[in-house]
Amino acid sequence: MNTENNDKPTLPAFPLTKAEEDEVMKLAAVGFMPHEIAVSMEWTRERRAAFCILANVPGSSISVLITAGRATGRAQPQIKLQEAAKAGNIEAIKALQNLQRTNRFNELVNNMDDDEFTP
């Protein structure tokens, strides 16, 4: 076993302005895919391609930014629903229960191994 090359690979930097970061977060929050986000930005073709590649590399700054945007997009409406449920809104309670069930199901599916899908 080679222990000399255990360094983690360094990913290329993809600097974004604050305005670009905010725009990427907003678009990810509403469910846009990385290639759709790239197309909507006023970047060169090469920069859009690099953005899409980095979006698919776990741990890259772009991947983390998109994941954070998606989490924000999912969390904020659920927090509002939780607040309404706490206030006693029956419809909010029912909607929140359904949403929690869906979230638990999605978590189970995401944590399954590939061999659990095969008969």
Question: What would you say this structure looks like, in words?
Answer:
- By secondary structure, this protein is mostly helical.
- The chain is 66% helix and 0% strand.
- The chain contains 5 helices and no strands.
- It has helices spanning 18-29, 34-40, 45-55, 61-86, 90-111.
- α1 packs across α4 (61-86).
- It is extended and about 50 Å long.
Looking at this protein, list some descriptive labels.
0% strand, extended, 5 helices
Entry summary:
The chain is an all-alpha fold and 119 residues long. The chain contains 5 helices and no strands.
Largest sheet features = none
Number of strands: 0
Instruction: Give the averaged pLDDT, no decimals.
Output: 87
> Which overall shape is indicated by the principal axes computed on the Cα atoms?
extended
Separate helix tally: 5
Q: Which secondary-structure class do the elements indicate?
A: mainly alpha
Radius of gyration: 19 Å
Q: Which percent range describes the beta-strand content? A: under 5%
What ranges have pLDDT less than 50 throughout 5 or more consecutive residues? none
Order of helix and strand elements from N to C terminus: HHHHH
**Terminal-residue CA separation:** 37 Å
Helix content: 55-70%
